[in-house]
Specification:
Layout (H helix, E strand, L loop, with lengths): L9 E2 L1 H15 L3 E5 L9 H6 L4 E3 L4 H13 L3 E7 H6 L2 H9 L6 E5 L17 H6 L6 E2 L4 H13 L4 E4 L5 E2 L14 E4 L4 E5 L4 H13 L4 E5 L2 E3 L3 H11 L2 E8 L4 H12 L4 E6 L9 H7 L4 H17 L2
Helix pairs in contact: 1-7, 3-5, 8-12, 9-10
């Protein structure tokens, strides 16, 4: 599938999330929201105004929040459990494991302001481990949409899906890349740009940076394939294997640690099915410092020019192998 022309108008994916949530709430009285004193940051004010009895604010008690969500699901409701991703995943991991994943509860976990979106609040608020924590759990699809269009489509899919889901949403504005009317398919990557020299794979806030890097590479005569890999689990094995065989080199980038995230998931496929030169861009196994998300991504080598340079190095490695 080809992407629509990239618009530089930036969209907050939380707006797309709540727009769909409120529409679902109007259509289905089973839809409820649960949050951890995060009505504002989760943008649930409109939902609360329309259905105050269908929003449960447990306060700053994430473990309780996840348990309440599981209980509501067991009672036949359709809960969207919303909170800052760093706290939703880190503080309540045991409850996510036992009450949600192990129990296969029909709860939609929505990690807001993921990655380094709370950059100025420092390492305690960075959520650069959530892919690793969530993707290891059975029964739990892990999804990080790249723009507002994919966010809306993913929320609609999550509501239809019978079972738990983890949606990872940033508060950092991103341009829309996918065409209007996009239908989200779990475990299926989207080819945003085709090429045969190297494959760039990302999701969330990094996808549009990969697209800009691909444009820089094209100006240097290097045609890069760009895959938007929104679903980290289940991963799109077929697209990864095809990319490895067609382009011979793979570069991933993510707003996450280089350990255990998207790059690790892609590498697991590459090493088993189609070994090729590969590089993982992300936070290099440290506590990321304080700073804006944009500054930190650039600092860790994920500006479009730095991505393009890393891709060029991979192409050179591929060529040296003959």
């Amino acid at each position: 599938m080809n992407a629509a022309t990239t618009s530089e108008k930036l969209h907050d994916c939380r707006d797309a999330f709540v727009a769909v949530l409120e529409r679902l709430g109007a259509e289905n009285s089973r839809v409820v929201a649960v949050c951890n004193d995060s009505v504002g940051s989760s943008k649930l004010g409109g939902f609360k105004a329309k259905w105050p009895d269908r929003l449960v604010n447990v306060g700053i008690a994430e473990q309780n929040m996840v348990g309440v969500g599981a209980g509501l699901a067991n009672g036949g409701l359709l809960p969207f459990v919303c909170g800052a991703s760093c706290f939703l995943t880190g503080r309540s991991l045991e409850q996510v494991k036992a009450d949600i994943a192990y129990s296969n509860a029909n709860v939609k976990l929505v990690g807001i302001s993921s990655g380094m979106a709370y950059g100025e609040l420092g390492p305690t608020h960075h959520s650069i481990e959530d892919f690793a924590w969530m993707r290891v759990l059975p029964n739990l699809p892990v999804v990080a949409p790249c723009d507002s269009i994919e966010t809306a489509a993913a929320v609609e899919w999550a509501a239809r899906h019978e079972g738990p889901v983890f949606l990872r949403l940033s508060r950092v504005g991103v341009p829309d890349l996918l065409p209007k009317g996009h239908v989200f398919v779990p475990g299926k990557a989207n080819t945003l740009r085709d090429g045969d020299a190297v494959t760039l794979i990302a999701n969330g806030t990094l996808t549009h940076r990969m697209m800009k890097a691909a444009t820089l590479l094209a100006a240097r005569g290097i045609e890069a394939r760009v895959l938007n890999m929104a679903t980290v689990r289940p991963i799109d094995v077929d697209s990864i294997v095809a990319a490895a065989r067609d382009t011979g080199a793979i570069l991933t980038a993510e707003e996450h640690s280089v350990y255990g995230g998207l790059g690790s998931a892609v590498a697991e496929v590459v090493v088993a099915e189609a070994p090729v030169p590969m590089k993982i861009l992300g936070v290099p196994g440290i506590f990321a410092p304080t700073g804006s998300a944009e500054f930190l991504l650039d600092e860790f080598g994920m500006s479009p020019p730095a991505i393009a340079e890393a891709a060029e190095e991979l192409v050179a490695r591929k060529s040296s192998r003959g």
